[in-house]
TrEMBL record:
Pfam families assigned: NTP_transf_3 (PF12804)
Protein's UniProt name: Nucleotidyltransferase family protein
InterPro entries (alphabetical): MobA-like_NTP_Trfase (IPR025877), Nucleotide-diphossugar_trans (IPR029044)
Species this protein is from: Paracoccus fistulariae
Gene3D superfamilies the UniProt entry points to: Spore Coat Polysaccharide Biosynthesis Protein SpsA, Chain A (3.90.550.10)
Domain of life: Bacteria
TM regions (residue ranges): none
PANTHER family attached to this UniProt entry: MOLYBDENUM COFACTOR CYTIDYLYLTRANSFERASE (PTHR43777)
Domain annotation MobA-like NTP transferase: ranges: 5-157
Amino acid sequence: MSVAALLLAAGQSRRFGTADKLLADLDGRALVTHAAGALEGVADRVAVVSSRAVADLLQPMGFRLVMQPPGQPQSASLSAGISAIDGSGATRVVIALGDMPFIGTGDIAGLIALRDDAPGCCWKDGAPIPPAIFPASYFGRLMALTGDRGAGALLRNVPPTMRIEIPAARLRDIDRPTDLP
């Protein structure tokens, strides 16, 4: 069983203001490096980015990069990342977001420990939330998604046995400067 990781880090950060939120300082490091660090236990890591500065931070961390033009919908980033993984021999993919810096390596390990023939995810307030994991049989469905939504539609009916419990504080994402601790 070969697991790949996909870090989506190409968003527009509209609510953050003019600065690139993925480069914002969090405990002396760029925000995106925290999310990337949670994936360090996965050998094959791909990041979809639209910023050269973000790419320059992730490449030394061992990520293969997929450059995405700015302003693309989230589904385009997801499709580009899965396309880069498809055919690599990966039997599953963990999908994480670059603006979720409080997820840890143990959380990712919890997803990987789930049954390997079905999708799994975190769950918050009655809904699926990233990070999530998908078997290769879902790669085509992930690449076919459209619009500015991620894979949530494919996770709505995930049974409780395929959900991992993570404290809400670690499932926070950073959308505005006031979201930073």
